[in-house]
Specification:
There is one protein chain. By secondary structure, the protein is an all-alpha fold. The chain contains 16 helices and two strands. Helix 1 runs parallel beside helix 7, helix 3 packs across helix 10 and helix 12 packs parallel to helix 14. It is globular, with a radius of gyration of 23 Å.
Length: 461
């Protein structure tokens, strides 16, 4: 078994970001939102599901919020069991494979079987976030405090690079389907006897159909990539703290008791408690923006045509991913120079300004500018928020319970943020109104960060 702080152990942990980040880029942020939008013809953005009619973006947002509610409920149960029997890796594997299967199942997503499609979407989302509670809890187990900021940033950077590589392949499939062997043939009768306009229309239709099929294939590549590259992480990471205990009926709710225990410890740790309050609020806004950004760009930006929209949205996502690699390391550097809390306050100010900017942006160029700025602060706030929490933890071997509490706070925040966003979108018909409300979350988060004690000795002052 490798010792804590060992380079191979740290690299294997970070490599899981390489494996699973393809989900967030292709499914959450780029190709699936474009695919989902393409299902709706002639600007009709309504869909019937669960005996109700929804605005298309509101439906997917509500389903996302519901999934996070399930994750928030399951996380303490499963992490409690994992900590009790000392085998968190088994649970991490389980959620990884559930998520990968969901991605592959998205190949069959269509409006005629919308509930089955939403089930696969649910599986992908719950698999990704469910595995993260165990993945994050490994951080203080394998890395010393002075290593955690850089390791967290390294994980996000590896995730961005790996996910961009797969996205470039999938983008090539979508934009040049014939090169990748997709059928773009046109009826010979049309080629022989059709007018020039008729032939051009048939060629365009064949290409669009092939591109649509390529999008569906890209979902399969995500599932295979995620499950495949995770094997190195699973091979190297330790099983967990071996306790050799059996699961009893009482253990099922052990996680909630552990969360209650964590809450009692938080009352005695003002620094950690106030930081967690602040994290709950600003993470609510950050995660909501990341989950709806492409839907916003698809619906609210004035693209020249559908091809320009597809290319523009994917280019903007690539901009975000590439800039985010730099942003994660810049944020890590700033935290070492100015401290974690001061850096987080500054990053939140940028996020708040971006929300105001997004409310007014209309043109693709404005969207690209926003994408670059989002990328600069996206990776930074995620990696720094995670490592700051890890550094503020008291000395304990029960890291899973503390990170379960962290993840539950994050998920409940996402549920609230996404529900508010979807509700405003549904009743007003505009995502612009929804994005503006997030300014308040960032502002409150900044105020709360200002109240976090600078050191543990300041807690009683």
């Amino acid at each position: 078994m490798l010792e804590k702080g060992h380079k191979k152990l740290l690299n294997a942990w970070a490599f899981y970001d390489w494996a699973n980040s393809v989900y967030t880029l292709t499914i959450t942020s780029s190709i699936f939102p474009i695919f989902y939008s393409a299902l709706f013809l002639n600007e009709i953005k309504k869909v019937s599901a669960f005996s109700m009619e929804f605005k298309s973006t509101a439906l997917i947002t509500f389903v996302t919020a519901f999934t996070f509610l399930i994750v928030a409920f399951l996380s303490p149960i499963l992490s409690g069991i994992a900590d009790y029997i000392g085998n968190k890796k088994t649970f991490m594997k389980f959620f990884c494979y559930i998520g990968a299967t969901g991605c592959i199942g998205l190949y069959s997503f269509n409006l005629e079987q919308i509930h089955l499609g939403l089930l696969f979407y649910f599986m992908g989302l719950i698999g990704y976030w469910g595995s993260l509670v165990f993945y994050n809890s490994y951080l203080p187990d394998i890395a010393y405090k002075e290593q955690q900021d850089n390791l967290s940033a390294k994980g996000f950077a590896m995730g961005y690079i790996g996910s961009v590589l797969l996205l470039l392949l999938n983008l090539g499939m979508v934009m040049f389907p014939s090169f990748f062997g997709f059928d773009v043939r046109v009826d010979p009768e049309i080629l022989a006897n059709g007018s020039e306009d008729k032939i051009a229309e048939a060629l365009e239709k064949a290409k669009n159909s092939a591109s649509f099929e390529a999008m569906k294939i890209s979902f399969i590549t995500v599932g295979i990539w995620w499950a495949g590259f995770s094997q190195y992480t699973f091979w190297v990471l330790p099983k967990g703290v071996s306790k050799e205990k059996r699961i009893t009926k009482d253990v099922l709710f052990n996680g909630f008791r552990e969360l209650k225990g964590v809450w009692k410890q938080l009352k005695e740790n003002l620094r950690l408690k106030r930081y967690l309050y602040a994290f709950f609020v600003f993470s609510m806004a950050v995660q909501t923006i990341m989950l709806v950004a492409v839907y916003f760009g698809e619906e609210e930006i004035a693209w020249a045509d559908d091809d320009a929209k597809t290319i523009g949205l994917i280019v903007s996502i690539l901009i975000i991913q590439l800039v985010a690699v730099v942003g994660a390391y810049i944020t890590s550097y700033c935290s070492s120079k100015f401290g974690n809390i001061k850096t987080l306050i500054f990053v939140n100010l940028i996020w708040m300004s971006l929300c105001v900017y997004a409310y007014f942006m209309i043109t693709p160029l404005q969207f690209y500018i926003a994408a670059g700025l989002v990328g600069l602060v996206m990776g930074g706030i995620q990696s720094l928020a995670r490592s700051t929490y890890s550094k503020f933890l008291p000395e304990t071997e029960d890291t899973t319970s503390f990170f379960s509490f962290y993840d539950v706070a994050e998920k409940i925040g996402i549920v609230i943020g996404m529900t508010i966003f979807a509700f405003i979108d549904q009743i007003t018909g505009s995502m612009r109104n929804s994005i503006l409300i997030l300014v308040a979350f960032f502002f409150i988060g900044i105020i709360m960060l200002l109240r976090v004690p600078k050191t543990t000795t300041d807690q009683n002052n």
